[in-house]
């Protein structure tokens, strides 16, 4: 009996990362539904984003100050710069673009387009010479084909509607039940072709922001190497406190989002929150998406790696499709299904190619591993001697080794955006 109990405990311990990621996907799917409801309730979208980061910061800051009060390193200008850029490209700007696209299209459409982040990051990495195409091997071909499939799927979802697919109908439509006459979206149905194209462009711009954020992290890594070889670091290593770094990013995003919202909306009545869907949306998205989800995903990345986290993202797309059809009466069309399938297949193609490259790199690059109390294991790449040729090799080794990691973890950033 004791042996059986021990085996059951070991099974549950091994399944803990899986269960946590499934719970996170359910939570993030709920954020998309609440976003749609708040937008159609007439809430100003810029104010919604500002409140989300305010709630996230208010939730994370006390936790970070208490739990990491002894282990938190000193704030430097470089850490503040990274926090500002993270809050801008990975937070306020990307969120404003995404929620505008969500209001113009649908929850299913926005969730599907978000799966393009790894493909866009890969394209930018090639443009900035942080990564090579490597079309001679299977992993490189898989990344290119996956990228093309993802872009093709987005185009199919945008320009091809097709026949309507009726799976079930609950006759429940929370949008029409909560829509108010003064809503600025009430006379702008998302079925309009012009809105669909504009919404697609905004969603693509949001994905581009997240890709730029990931590329900036890699560039900062290279700068760190040139200044202080032979170590290479990123914010998770130079500031190895998950709660504090997330709170810093959320605080920067709050400042930027509030400033932008005040510039565009100065009517104070719009900022009032009552006991309604608006308060539920900003509190839920701030606490769950910006607070708990980011921390839990960081924990799962430390336990299983970024690729493990990334493969769960299509589950969120499926959950959003089910929830939207159940409570929002969103209709599935053939074009949406085909496009989503192409995007998901392209996503797994890119992730498979990344996984193969990371596996090959870990076997070919000599490294020494040490363990940090907070950040887990960290690989230190052994650099060549300091000379002209060695410097170029240092950069190439860093970018080739780190770019796949940054890109493969791109999808895990969805928690920061609540999609």
Automatic annotation (TrEMBL):
The keyword Transmembrane helix applies. Residues 17-156, 198-351 form the EamA domain. It is found in: Membrane. The chain crosses the membrane at residues 18-35, 47-67, 79-98, 104-130, 142-160, 196-222, 282-301, 308-328, 334-353. Residues 391-402 have a biased composition (Low complexity). PANTHER family: WAT1-RELATED PROTEIN (PTHR31218). This is EamA domain-containing protein. It comes from Malus domestica (Apple). The lineage of its organism: Eukaryota, Viridiplantae, Streptophyta, Embryophyta, Tracheophyta.
């Amino acid at each position: 009996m004791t042996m059986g109990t021990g085996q059951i405990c070991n099974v549950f311990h091994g399944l803990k990362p899986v269960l946590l990621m499934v719970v996170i996907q359910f939570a993030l799917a709920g954020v998309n539904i609440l976003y749609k409801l708040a937008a159609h309730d007439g809430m100003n979208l810029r104010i919604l984003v500002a409140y989300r980061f305010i709630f996230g910061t208010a939730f994370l800051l006390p936790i970070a100050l208490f739990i990491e009060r002894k282990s938190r390193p000193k704030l430097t200008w470089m850490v503040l710069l990274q926090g500002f850029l993270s809050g801008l490209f990975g937070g306020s700007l990307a969120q404003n673009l995404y929620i505008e696209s969500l209001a113009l299209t649908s929850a299913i459409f926005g969730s599907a387009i978000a799966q393009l982040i790894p493909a866009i990051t890969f394209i930018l990495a090639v443009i900035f010479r942080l990564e090579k195409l490597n079309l001679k091997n299977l992993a490189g071909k898989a990344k290119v084909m996956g990228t093309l499939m993802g872009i093709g799927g987005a185009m199919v979802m945008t320009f091809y509607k097709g026949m309507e697919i009726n799976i079930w109908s609950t006759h429940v439509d929370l949008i029409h039940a909560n829509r108010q006459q003064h809503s600025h979206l009430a006379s702008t149905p998302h079925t309009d072709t012009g809105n669909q194209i504009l919404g697609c462009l905004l969603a693509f711009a949001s994905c581009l922001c997240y890709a730029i954020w990931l590329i900036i992290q890699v560039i900062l890594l290279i700068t760190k190497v040139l200044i202080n070889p032979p170590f290479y670091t990123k914010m998770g290593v130079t500031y190895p406190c998950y709660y504090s770094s997330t709170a810093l990013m959320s605080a920067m995003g709050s400042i930027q989002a509030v400033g932008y919202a005040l510039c565009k909306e100065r009517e104070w009545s719009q900022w009032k929150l009552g006991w309604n869907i608006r308060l539920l949306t900003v509190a839920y998205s701030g606490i769950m998406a910006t607070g708990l989800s980011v921390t839990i995903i960081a924990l799962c990345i430390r336990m299983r790696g970024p690729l493990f986290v990334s493969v769960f993202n299509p589950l969120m797309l499926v959950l959003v499709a089910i929830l939207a059809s159940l409570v929002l009466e969103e209709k599935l069309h053939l074009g949406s299904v085909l496009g989503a399938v192409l995007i998901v297949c392209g996503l797994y193609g890119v992730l498979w190619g990344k996984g193969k490259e990371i596996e090959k790199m870990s076997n070919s690059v000599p490294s020494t591993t040490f363990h940090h109390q907070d950040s887990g294991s960290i690989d230190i790449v052994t650099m060549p001697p300091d000379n002209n040729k060695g410097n170029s090799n240092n950069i190439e080794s860093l970018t080739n080794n780190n770019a796949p990691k940054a890109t493969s973890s791109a999808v895990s950033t969805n928690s920061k955006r609540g999609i």
